[in-house]
Amino acid sequence: VKLRGPGFQPGPFPSRALAWLPPGLRVGKPPCSRFPDSPWLLWSPFLPQATPADMFAKAFRVKSNTAIKGSDRRKLRADVTAVFPTLGTDQVSELVPGKEELNIVKLYAHRGDAVAVYVSGGNPILFELEKNLYPTVYTLWSYPDLLPTFTTWPLVLEKLVGGADLMLPGLVVPPAGLPQVQKGDLCAIALVGNRAPVAIGVATMSTAEMLASGLKGKGFSVLHTYQDHLWRSGDKSSPPSIAPLALDPPDLSEEKGSVQADATLQGDMRHLALEGEEEEDEEVQQMCGEKSQSEATEDPSVGGLNPDATDSKTLQEQMDELLQRCFLHALKCRVKKADLPLLTSTLLGSHMFSCCPEGRQLDIKKSSYKKLSKFLQHMQQEQIIQVKELSKGVESIVAVDWKHPRITSFVIPEPSPTSQTIQEGSREQPYHPPDIKSLYCVPASMTLLFQESGHKKGSVLQGSEVRTIVINYAKKNDLVDADNKNLVKLDPILCDCILEKNEQHAVVKLPWDSLLSRCLEKLQPAYQVTFPGQEPIVKKGKIGPIDITLAQRASNKKVTVVRNLEAYGLDPCSVAAILQQRCQASTTITPAPGAKDSLQVQIQGNQVHHIGRLLLEEYQLPRKHIQGLEKAPKPGKKK
């Protein structure tokens, strides 16, 4: 039995063998084939799988985020070479770098699927599902010919992002004909006029079967799309503009058994149909039915998703421009003379990254310089800065010419309200710190003092309300000392409420400030948290601060641990992703010990300075609610 036909298969690793599975109920069935008159199933990684629609259409939950070691990188490169044989050795090494930052993020999709995502330079490049390896759109933009590419209309993209599969009537047949694929082959999906893929899916039938069906039915099970949540976890860049290949149409007379595409079929190809929609949008039907492929190619509005002036520049030129922009912005606004000498790594991690415009991702390896040291040497040749190696292998900026024309002429872009967002469901909202107020709860031992004002056990009061109630009680019961207005005579109720047992007969009068402070001490602490646009939440006790601690791990390595972010409306996963980029260090999210349903963020090295800047300057949290800022490394000392 021929189990695997020609063409690219969706990433099974080599060495996975066939297996016979006994009959019975299974959760999450692997790809199997049942033979006649037998309850047994033949399992093979090469049999086509029934893959679900885009599993990243909704927000996912991150389980862990760790750096990949050298041995694991070599294994990943070997797997990539086996799965994508068209990639050369240099291309595989560029995709899976040897020394640059490379992390594996383990997550759960919204339906519970366990997925491993490989992240390089802040962008997801590959993801692994059920031992199959798939590229992301970020990778396909660098290698657009990695997979067979099918074309559809721009209006279809919105439906694909929403979780729909691609139906065959939505395909656009180019003059050269459809790519030749087999059932189960992994394919890329692009839009007319632009070869940059916007989706990845698995073919549900071969090319011959597609044509034989008259291009009707489901053609591709979509796994991942541009604008879904996996794409959002990267730099959120738009697809580059890649011109379609100019291919000669095939000679159909030489292909035996091929299906001729007549005028009726060509008209059907322009009809849009998506799974899950019984009635199609009339406007979409009209646009897809009236526009021919040649018109769509000539129409600049269809040629790309986000036409922009920068599309005429290569990705490398755009990254060079962004690199210099962030460098000049950092020198003009963030770096001060007192900061010198400044480590070059600190310039990049603490200053240049934070100057990157919202929605852009600074990645030096995608520039023509490839390394920070080479870029800074170029800036030194322009006499903007002076770089010296103050210690072996460690370079620092020792001088900056702030009067240099490039710095003085640099125009600072208008700041956005905030570039940090937290994910809530499928939408994003700017983070605003909560309003936190200290409150006081009336205990049973003090109900007699407060019952005259209409309050009972458990009543929640502000400090000003407590002060007013105590003053009114003293005046109403003539407890203010006639000879000294600053003293208050204690009646039996006040004695029972605020005095200790050994003071009952010794203390008969108290100053106002002592009386009020003792009352507040005897009340139970509480607090009120109000998030923007939400109802206030009142809780007993004191709100715990965001706790920043340092810990020792294996091999005497130091890590920074951050706890209690949830109490202030911060998502640990989002904070970990931001810190990973700022600190250029691996981050891990684990359950916080001793705290139910709470997570902690662990960052490699002493990163208290970066965490403090993020919480204080960008999230605008009060310093009194952050504990452990004093543990930041002192200037000049080794971190």
From TrEMBL:
GO molecular function, one term: translation initiation factor activity
Name of this chain's protein: Eukaryotic translation initiation factor 2D
Residues annotated as signal peptide: none
PANTHER family (UniProt xref): EUKARYOTIC TRANSLATION INITIATION FACTOR 2D
Domain DM2: 438-522
Keywords: Acetylation, Cytoplasm, Initiation factor, Phosphoprotein, Protein biosynthesis
GO BP terms in the entry: formation of translation preinitiation complex
UniProt region (Disordered), positions on chain: 232-264, 276-311
Entry's Gene Ontology cellular component terms: cytoplasm
Its job: Translation initiation factor that is able to deliver tRNA to the P-site of the eukaryotic ribosome in a GTP-independent manner. The binding of Met-tRNA(I) occurs after the AUG codon finds its position in the P-site of 40S ribosomes, the situation that takes place during initiation complex formation on some specific RNAs. Its activity in tRNA binding with 40S subunits does not require the presence of the aminoacyl moiety. Possesses the unique ability to deliver non-Met (elongator) tRNAs into the P-site of the 40S subunit.
Family: Belongs to the eIF2D family.
Keyword Acetylation listed: yes
Localization in the cell: Cytoplasm
